[in-house]
Amino acid sequence: MGFKIKKTYTFAVVSALYIALFSTALLSIIQLFFSHFYWELTFLFSLGIFIFSVLVIQYRSERFIYQRVKKIYNEISLLDSASLRSKSITTDMATLEREVKKYAAIKKIELENLKEREEYRREFMGNVSHELKTPLFTVQGYIDTLIDGVKVREQRQTYLERAQKGVERLVYIVEDLDMIAKLEMGELSLDYSEFNIVNLTQNVFDMLEMQADKKNIILMFDRKYSKTIKVKADKEKIRQVLINLIMNSIKYGKENGTTEVTIEDLINNKIIVRVRDNGEGIEPQNITRIFERFYRVDKSGARSEGGSGLGLSIVKHIIERHDEKIYVESEFGIGSEFSFTLEKCE
What we know:
Blueprint: E1 4-6, H1 10-33, H2 39-75, H3 81-85, E2 88-90, H4 93-148, H5 153-185, E3 192-196, H6 197-214, E4 218-221, E5 230-234, H7 235-251, E6 258-267, E7 270-277, H8 284-287, H9 299-304, H10 311-321, E8 326-331, E9 335-344
Parallel strand pairs: 1-2, 4-6
Antiparallel strand pairs: 3-5, 5-9, 6-7, 7-9, 8-9
């Protein structure tokens, strides 16, 4: 291994000084015992002992530390020996101890992060397989039935339509996966423009009105916005943010409930858009994880409502891609509020 020794002579000098003093004292006692004392000889002897001790102790300590550290790095496979080659190993024991402790603390954090990532990877793969296999099995079941032969024409048409819905769900999941992958890798470009956020929200209301009517949920603004509120952002991406947030409020909303959108000035060049509902709310332990891919607060209910499980994760990435912030406040059994900031146009 080709790592360097960063030489510090403190330990060798102090140790050699003690040896020289002890040797000088011993020599002086011997000379006094024979009733002769030679200052020149004593000085030269002490100086020689000091220099010799410094060289020997320095060399031996360097070799000892080098061999010990090399052994540690060779025995512990989790430590990257390549990182050692670019650093110097000090011969000062106190400094070396601090550096080793610091290095060990860093590696401990890295190991904990690796464990968390591995756990997240296993959970993610399990979620992906669950989301994909449901529509796949649905499509496979209806196709197998059609292959076996269905004589009634109307029944064949029904099976084909159900198989088509399964395929559409698969396409929806794959498209969302593709989008979130591009967002995470920074490959999805933003097409900034100036647009009226009030009109865009109203368009989303019109689009989702039928889904809201099924649960008798009212989609509304908190007040009448008489003036245009222009923002600068990617219009289509913000449309998707609003669709996902309002769809979630409908999905998890109570029968005969409301979904309310508020647009407020935050600071001079910022606004904040709030999407508030009086639905089932989110339990505190789930709030920190709701923006994770495929994470569902209600495992069974959410899947029965459909969706890819990627909506909130996509929302978060889109808003952060705009260098803006997204917030969530919720009280279980009372309702939730999702809000995000945008750049305002004067």
